Amino acid sequence: MAELSFKSRPRMFLLDQTTASPSSRAVVVAVMRHNQRNDVKSIELRRPARREHHLWKRRDRGQSFRKASDLVRIIRNLPDEKNAIYDALDRWTAFEDEFPIIAIAKSLQTLKKNHHWLRIIQVCKWLFSKGQILTWLTYDVLLIALSMEGRVDEAELVYNKVIKDYTRSTPKRLFSRMVSMYDHHHLPHKILEVFADMEEFGIRPDGDTTWRIGRALVQLKQPEKVKQLLEKYLTKWKYLYFDGKRVRVKRGGPSDPFADQSKIDQPKIDQLKIE
């Protein structure tokens, strides 16, 4: 530490005033320290505190809800014509700095609660035309809407597109949704095709999906494979939500046709048949 003797008050000195920028310029702070022995003052070098510049912006969470409610109000009373829906959506996003994908996702959830399935399909197709990437939740809502409208072929096209684009990152929920849709429309051979994709990707089906696959095997006259399926994928325990908590419950009761997996016989397999 350099020693400096002076009797005046502390001063501020700047190093390299001509070359250094203000942000990188070192600030020399003269701190007077009284030394009882030799009565000298010392100076101490300090650098300014670094300022952290955040890259994100703080946004109002209620703004996306207001935009979503405005979108639902706009498209709810429009005719079922493609051009009318697309023009209204284009006008709604005309003066937006960023594409309001969050507000659109929230509006799709509102349309789902009100059972406006055709509007969901039209909005999702408009998103595809704009080159936007849908979230997994939006894909799930789209598949539900296509199933409720009876457009199973289009749902299969969406499923194949997702499998092609996101081969190793496709969630289990998408496969379960397709199995549920095919089971609702009585297409057992399609269920086995989805189950083959799940085994190829190493995805383990949940309990409900396993039962639907078992019913499909029974409908296709393959009851000998049901026992292997249940022993491999149907666990002894299941999880339920009680008072907001996840509780582990042992399988059994009137809702479970397989109370004990170690004793799977033909009468229990027959319970999978749809009346």
Automatic annotation (TrEMBL):
InterPro entries: EMB1417-like, PPR_rpt, TPR-like_helical_dom_sf. The keyword Repeat applies. Residues 262-275 have a biased composition (Basic and acidic residues). Pfam families: PPR (PF01535). Keywords: Repeat, Transit peptide. Residues 252-275 are annotated as: Disordered. PANTHER family: OS01G0757700 PROTEIN, OS07G0545900 PROTEIN. This is Pentatricopeptide repeat (PPR) superfamily protein. It comes from Rhynchospora pubera.
